[in-house]
Each structure stands twice: as structure tokens, then as C-alpha cells.
Give the backbone structure.
Amino acid sequence: MRYRRAMMLLVSAGGNRVPVIAKLVQADEDTVRDVIHRFNEIGLACLDPRWARGRPRLRSPDDEDFVFQTATTRPTKLGQPFTRWSIRKLVAYLRKVHGRVIRIGTGGVGFVRLNLATSPEILTEAVRRMTNS
């Protein structure tokens, strides 16, 4: 990406017009104009792309830690009548007992059984996926 932008600037400095530059680097004319205008505004910093940050996180790190701690604790130790967490049971427990409304989606782990026999790495990944959906 930096190389293409640098090429646009170099060819532009040689006196070529935007349509010629766009054909040479196989880019849209508007993109070439944007790169040239940004170069005129901020100099060589225009070579670095401006990546978007993405959507804001839905949960705080405290919520994630709370879900993780609950999911890695045996349900019987928390007074529940079952031995393994399902996603539905975990969500219901978090809402009913702690009053915390934390949205947990399946995130591709709908059939993962959360129990202490599962290796910690798999369990951590499953909880991470559940909380990042």
C-alpha cells in the first residue's frame, strides 16, 4: 500500500495527470486525488494508511473477567443443580443471580461443553469467543 501511494506521488511529481496515474497504478482516480491532496496537507505521513478502529466493544474487561470466572467455576459450587455450563444456563445464571445483563452469543461455540475437564486453553478460547460475538 505504501509503495502504490509513493508511486502515485512520484508520477504526480513528474507532471502526469490524474487519469494517467490511475491507469499506471491501477487505482481509482478519486483515490489518486485523495493521496495527492493528503500529501499536500501532511507530507510523507500520507503514505501510511488510516485504518478504522472498528466497532466499539460491547463489554468492558471487567464484564469479560466476570463471565470468565463464572464459566470456569463448577456450577455445583455456585449452587446450581447441574454439573456443566451451557451457554443458555450461563446467561440465565448471570442475569438471575447477579443481575448483570451481559449479552453472550454463540460465536461458533454453541456446542462446546464448559467443564473443568476441558483443558484451560480450550476453555479460555471458548469463553473469549462467547464474549466477543
The first helix runs from residue 2 to 13.
